[in-house]
Specification:
The chain is of the alpha/beta class. Helices cover about 40% and strands about 25% of the residues. Bound molecules: adenosine-5'-diphosphate (ADP) and magnesium ion (MG). Its main location: membrane.
């Protein structure tokens, strides 16, 4: 579903991603861990064309993403959920969810609404469809943001620390929603510090250290027998 080869990215002459290569199979859930500044967000953002790579190949569900088509194509295939929800504040939850299907994909409004309500029910937000983001808890806003990303029918969902900005008591409901998506077979890459969730839900874990993937293994193995010093140090800090 995702193939990345020799991805490189620098900012102002400073290499942030050195030479990243990996694949993610359809239905696989991969958690990405690593210290702050190791390049996790930049890697996900390159996959979604929020950052433009310097070089390397990115292929998503069978198409190599290159040139002028890249941005539109990627935005449709890849859904992204951020730490700070980024909902449109002056739109209701429902309006947020139908915005891209109607304005980007040109879907009929009544069809988009019907599909949005199914998604909102799935994330437990149907009753809040007509509410504005400011009146919702962080967990509810994040679940609405997940529904909004799903409304584009993406092949892949990327999550960048989706629970880091939430009060502790709201983390569980968002992780539960993500767990449900994983169980339905969605292909997912998740940057997270929630190690119990990662261990339970992900097939594989990838550790980024200074812009390189230093470990990429089945989650259970990585926890029970980390190979690299950087992994051991990271696990000591978060566990
Ligand atoms: P992580 O998500 O693992 O904390 P990031 O991908 O955000 O790491 O950042 C990796 C490095 O790239 C950091 O040194 C950060 O300062 C730098 N960086 C990220 N985005 C930009 C940008 N837009 N301009 C300049 N430097 C950036
Ligand atoms: Mg980050």
């Amino acid at each position: 579903m995702i193939r990345v080869e020799n991805l490189k990215k620098s900012f102002d002459g400073k290499n942030v991603l050195h030479d990243i290569s990996f694949t993610v199979e359809e239905g696989e859930v991969v958690c990405v861990i690593g210290a702050s500044g190791s390049g996790k967000s930049t890697m996900l953002r390159c996959l979604n064309y929020l950052e433009q790579k310097d070089s390397g190949t990115i292929e998503i569900s069978g198409s190599v993403i290159e040139g002028r088509r890249a941005e539109t194509e990627l935005r449709q295939k890849v859904g992204m959920v951020f730490q700070h929800f980024h909902l449109f504040p002056h739109k209701t939850v429902l309006e947020n969810v139908i915005e891209a299907p109607v304005h980007v994909l040109g879907r009929k409004k009544d069809e988009a609404v019907a599909e949005a309500m199914v998604l909102l029910e799935k994330v437990g937000m149907k009753e809040k469809a007509d509410d504005y983001p400011a009146s919702l808890s962080g967990g509810q806003q994040q679940r609405a943001a997940i529904a909004r990303a799903l409304a584009m029918k993406p092949d892949v969902m990327l999550f960048d620390e989706p629970t880091s900005a939430l009060d502790p008591e709201l983390v569980g409901e968002v992780l539960e929603t993500m767990k449900q998506l994983a169980a339905e077979g969605m292909t997912m890459m998740i940057v997270t510090h929630e190690m119990n969730f990662a261990r339970e839900v992900s097939d594989r874990m990838m550790l980024l250290h200074e812009g390189r993937i230093v470990e990429d293994r089945p989650s259970k193995e990585l926890f029970s027998s980390p190979r690299e010093e950087a992994t051991k140090a990271f696990l000591r800090r978060v566990l």
